[in-house]
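Worked example 2:
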Amino acid sequence: MYCGNCGTQNDDHANYCIRCGNKLGKKSSKSAKRKNLKWILPVVLLGVVALAIGAVRLYPVFFKTDTDVITEDKGAADKDTAEDTQAAVVSPAVNLSETITPDITSAESTPGNGSAINNESTTGNDSESDGESTSDNSGVPGGETAETTGSWHNSTESHDITINSILKYDGNAIFNFNDTVAVGVYGQNGIISTTETESGFILSVIDEDSVRVTFYNNGTEYIVPSQLLAEMSAEDYIDETGATEYIIDGYGDCSDGFGLIQMTLSNGRIVRAGVLHENGQLYAANFTTKPVIAENNVNFRLKMEPILEASNITPDNQTYTDPIYYPIVPVAANERTDVDFWVNQANELVQDDWTDAHKVEVFYDYIIDNFAYDYWVIGHTDANSRTFYHMDYTGTYFTSNTHVGVCEDFANILAIMCRAQNIPATKINTSAHAWNYIYIADYGRWLTVDVTKDLAYGCYSEDVTEWTSLSNKRYANIDNVSGSKFASDCTAGIGNRDDMERYGKIPVEQQ
């Protein structure tokens, strides 16, 4: 079967073109295409002549109309971004000792090289996505209006690079320096994140000269890369084969500085990350057009360090599931915890060979799509769940049965599910809210996840089956923090802490 868009030959049973991702139509053959050209070409030539004659007379009116339409469409797209959820944050007043602003100059060096590893497209289901594509993702980590910024960016200074460093240039920033970073995007108008979400790529440093770029698609929509661009030195590396993995080398020949890696997806979305070369070493980094986003993330990590230290919380001791006491500490014969349910559920949802970030994304999706925030219990009682409202600790009113809960429930559930897969996770608590802090070993850092704020449903009724759809944005509160999220009464620890203290069940290492 030949693609009507690019002419590539596909398998007869294929639904989408392996080259351009176009939905395939009726079967055709090369001989039939050549036969059609015998009469199509003369008609096309006549049409071109007619259009040329008409354009001389209509050009001024056509040009004006087209320009007006493009301007209006772009304005509409600007309003339909995630800027309202991530760009309006204010950086806390913390001194970022590792924040550095290099002197960026134009690049003059040798070109880099690259190779596509896998030229087979990743396939999803047969459904086509709705809506129009927008490439204006300003205000979110990792994405913005799609124009390349040029070639390699030289730096005239040397820096002490750590995970908490921030390099700023021309109103942009790169941050989260490590051997591996990831960028993810949701749909055609959704959030772009500094971790794996629906689709995007993982950037990993191989050695002092080369990096690996791996495309992933964790969703059901058919999405493939349409172009990969890597800023190198005098000549950028560009690949349009639709490959899913790339090895890009030649960074060892570049001067100290950095270049962006930009992937354009078949749904029109664009995602970016950065490669820093300094003192013979390469670093992968996330990229944002809003430096305040980088500052907020780094500031939050710096503020959380003493909180974790005070509770003796490290990645090494945050993977146990026994003992965890949620939602209660059982003290009577008919009382129980609900930990085993969530451990088993987590193990059923994921595969062993998935990355930790992919597993976290799957747990997150499962919770926001299958559970509702319990506005009724919050509005009708001082108890923070139906279990305590009914004072029934047998499991009848556990979230696993009712499918409704509050922030304390969902933060505990997500932490337990992560730990079931040996992913370090804890719960961050304030007097008014609870969310998660999850350690992604590949990224070398903790990830904030506030699943409660992204729930798709709310329950305002005593009847737990009556749900209302909410207008929350998917992935809006993954690795997205602001000064308002941090509170002076912030503590860390999993489970029902009040019950655990009452009955002496706080883990020894956290006492």
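The chain has ten helices and 24 strands. The two ends are 67 Å apart (CA to CA).
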